[in-house]
Amino acid sequence: MEWLNYHHLLYFWMVAKEGSIVRASKELRLAHPTISGQIHRLEEVLGEKLFVRSGRALALTDVGQMAYRYANDIFALGGELMDAVKGRAGGRPMRLVVGVSDVLAKSIVHRMLEPAFRLGDQVRIVCREDRSMDAFMADLAVHAVDVVLADAPAGTSTSVRAFSHLLGECGAVVMAAPALAQKLRKGFPDSLDGAPFLLPSATSTLRRALDGWFDGRNIRPKIVAEFDDAALATVIGETGLGAFVAPAVVEEEIRRRYKVRLVGRLNDLRQRFYAISVERKIRHPAVAAICEAARTHIFT
To answer: Please, how many CA atoms are within 13 Å of residue 249, restricted to the half-sphere of its CB?
Structure first.
């Protein structure tokens, strides 16, 4: 009978979950060569490669993805065994791992996640933001994340079979620090021509929509800065360095939280929001709660 060394499997699982040997070594408090050696031994036992190099990162092979799914189940059962033996309350909290695109305003992400937080002890939420959309798609494929919140559907260029669930859409608003907002409010939207502006990065869906909106009205704002992170643009906007765009549904919240004012509304510039998963039909209760609340309350 062939036996599996579960220490080797644990090291493999941690590297797959954390995305790199460096991160796994911090979690396990082991040296890089130790972890690499244990994974190589597991590959020798299985007779298959579990990782391949993808630039500077590690990517799971097909066999690696299968092994990762089994490892998830194995270590989840191990945790349940310890709970049962030690007499702890049965039924561990559901784990919801959410990938969040940086281009989403933090205020709207909070409102999207709020229904999951209301589930209380039933769910433990892990939010990840330090990944590109391509990386998030790869995470979805190996179930390292349960859902990705984004302002665009999953691209067709990816090899991952993912489903984009539309949560809703809304218009956009232009906001700025009080003095700049007062100046730009008169003659809006023509007043935006030559005005200092903080824009999303050139690759974002919102930026492409804004560029089309500006071109259609022959408006050329002065681009002060471009940001991948919508939250950083809002913080910089509060200082008065430039106007910025935010989703209309969180206008009041942004006004309360930051010292900014409304310049004008871009009702014909629509922003769409998606929950991307590998499931055609959402089964995770927390993801289902997020989708239901978005469609019935946030974007109505």
So the answer is: 22
What DSSP designation does 159 have?
Answer: S
DSSP string, 235-298: HHHHTTS-BEEEEGGGHHHHHHHSS-EEEEEEEEEEEEEEEEES-SS---HHHHHHHHHIIIII
Asked if 234 and 246 count as a contact pair (C-beta separation under 8 A), the reply is yes
Q: Identify the structural domains of the chain with CATH numbers, from first to last.
A: 6-85 (1.10.10.10), 93-300 (3.40.190.290)
237 contacts 176 by C-beta, under 8 angstroms: yes
pLDDT digits (tens, 9 = 90+) for 62-100: 898 889 888 888 887 777 666 556 544 445 677 888 999
Chain centroid to Cα 54, Å, comes to: 21
Name the nearest CA neighbour of 100 among 269, 275, 299: 275
Query: Rounded to whole angstroms, how far apart are CA atoms 53 and 208?
Result: 33
- 36-66 pLDDT tens trace: 888 999 999 899 999 988 777 788 998 988 8
Distance CA 151, CA 206 (A): 8
Tell me the pTM: 0.66
Q: Distance between CA atoms of 300 and 280, rounded to whole angstroms?
A: 23
